[in-house]
Amino acid sequence: MSRRFYAMPRFEMSREMQGGWMVYVEDERTLRFAWEMSGSADQHVLLAPVNLSRWTSPTTETVPVSKQLEILAQLRDWLTNQGIKSDLDRPHPAAPDFDLTLLARDS
Predict the structure, then answer these.
(1) Which of 21, 41, 103, 104 could hold 68 in an S-S bridge, CB 3.0 to 4.6 Å?
(2) Is the peptide bond before 64 cis (omega within 30 degrees of 0)?
(3) How do the domains of the chain map onto residue ranges?
(4) How far are the Cα atoms of 8, 38, 55, 79 from residue 84, in angstroms, in the given order?
(5) 67: buried, middle or exposed (CB in 10 Å: 19+, 13-18, 0-12)?
(6) Strand 29-37 and strand 19-26: pairing?
(7) Cis ω for the linkage preceding 49 (within 30 of 0)
(8) Residue 15's beta-bridge partner residues?
(9) What is the mean pLDDT of each run of 10 residues along the chain (107 residues)?
């Protein structure tokens, strides 16, 4: 019996001109969405509006709002760890969370 091992959920970021693609990979599912460079010193990249309501692969599966919120929170942490400022950031470390529910949507 063969076993298939999956990497932990991960993000990948590619650049094309003034923007590029973010890819979230989890098991055999992926989400692909665009980002663009910001013209502001306060933010390096802009992600909103982002639509995470349907997996890029497999295309027949929707992403529940609760999962979208989880992915957005993980994305914010990943970008911070990469030293990338985005429109998902908190205004300052003591600030309450940015309301990620504004970005999650039903399919």
Answers:
(1) 104
(2) no
(3) 10-102
(4) 21, 11, 24, 5
(5) middle
(6) antiparallel
(7) yes
(8) 20
(9) 59 86 92 86 78 90 90 89 82 56 62
Q: What's the CA gap between 5 and 81, in Å, rounded? A: 25
The model's pLDDT over 7-28, given as tens digits with 9 standing for 90+, comes to: 578 998 888 888 899 999 998 8
Do residues 38 and 46 touch, judged by C-beta distance below 8 A? yes
Q: Are 33 and 73 in contact (CB under 8 A)?
A: no
What is the distance in angstroms between the CA of the first residue and the CA of the last residue of the chain?
37
| CB under 8 A, 24+ apart: contacts of 34-37 | 35/86
Backbone φ and ψ of 104, nearest 5°: -80, 145
Alpha helices in the chain (DSSP H): 65-81
